[in-house]
Amino acid sequence: MRELTPRIALELIAHEGIVTEAYKDSVGVWTWSVGITDASGHKVFPRYKDKPQPLEHCIGVYLWLLREKYLPPVLAAFGKHEPSEAELGAALSFHWNTGAIARASWIGRFVKGDVDGARKSMLDWARPRELLARRRKEQALFFDGQWSEDGMALVYGVAKPSYTPVRGKRVEVRGLIEGLFVDAPAPAPVPVAKKKTWFDRLFE
Q1: What's this model's pTM, rounded to 2 decimal places?
Q2: Which of 78, 94, 79 is nearest to 139 (CA)?
Q3: For residue 20, which of 37, 30, 10, 34 has the smallest C-alpha distance?
């Protein structure tokens, strides 16, 4: 499995939730949608300050970033190993949260066949302590195939003037996400150079 799937996208949302307008995270960084900040390359502030967006837009930008910015380094970390959907989903969740897939020792251990060592060292990334529950869920998905997503998302409002997320409500988003995958344009085919025949060379 080397492609993003609706189930993988839903798994990350189950960990993150969705905030439809810009808010300040725990350290004061302006954030939006599924934990997106300016560091992603998509401008969050002031674009989404006091400007709630439809869920379709929030999720569409999130899917674009997953495919374009986060999937390539995760696939590179797997090397020649062909990940299962669960392995790819857990690794993407880890990278989306930490940005550290390229330097995390657990993925290197796994690729080399040290499964037990990889399972243990994934929890080295459980600091601050609040991240332990997420790492355990990623660990269970990667090594045991246990998914957390149920097709729902916690969608939050924003309290002002503090600009902190409040009043999370569970919203069904599976249909929306699956629809966005159906509507996504197919990747352009890679052009294949035509091998010249002796007949072609007659006209060079």
Answers
A1: 0.87
A2: 94
A3: 34
